[in-house]
Every structure is written in structure tokens, then in C-alpha cells.
Amino acid sequence: MSHESAPQAHHAHGHEAGHGSFRGYMIGFVLSIVLTAIPFWLVMGGVLDSKLFTAVLVMGIGVVQIVVHMVYFLHMNPRSEGGWTLMALIFTLVIVGIALAGSLWVMHHLNANMMPMTHEMMKNMP
Question: Which are the contacts of 96, defined by CB distance < 8 A and separation ≥ 6?
């Protein structure tokens, strides 16, 4: 009967968990603040002329922020848990992609089909 400790047994089977450091948490925190401030500035400041490009840029920054949270706060990397956390990251990116694309599709069709207004209709509104 083996009397190895739980951490030794855990590492012996190749399930190395990622552990955060103060530096790692601070990098994640600063990146989170920056990745929140940039879309706010883009939208509230009207920085870009194209609303479509602004929306795509904000969504892209949102995806980057999700990855930052997963890497710096959930400690996902290709080495821990035998690579399963990397698979979880890929799964998350696929789900987020589907959710973003579906949300844009629904919003576009609601705007196109539920709000058919011409300039003449707008003039006659109270």
C-alpha cells in the first residue's frame, strides 16, 4: 500500500493544476480593466464612424476578455489536467461564438422585420 500524499499522488498522474500568483492575478485584473474601458470608450465616444465595425470590435474585445478571465483567473493552460482545460477553453470559445452570432442574427432580424419605418412614417410620429 502506497503512502504518498494527495499532492504527490495528484502530480504523479499528470494532473498538474495551474496555480495563480499575485503577479498573474494583477496582470489579469489590469487586462480586464483595459478590455472593459476600450469598448466603453469606443461606444460612448463615437470614435469610429462605422457602427458595424464598432460592434464587431466590441464583440472581439469581449471574446478576448473571456479568454483573459479563463487563463488568468481560472488558470486554464495546455499543461494542466492533461490538456482538458484547453479543451474546455476551445468549447467555451465555440459556445461564445454561437451565442454572439445568434444574438446578432436575432437583433438584425428584429430590426429589419419588426421596425419597418420610412422617413414619412417617422415624420408623422407624435
Answer: 63, 66
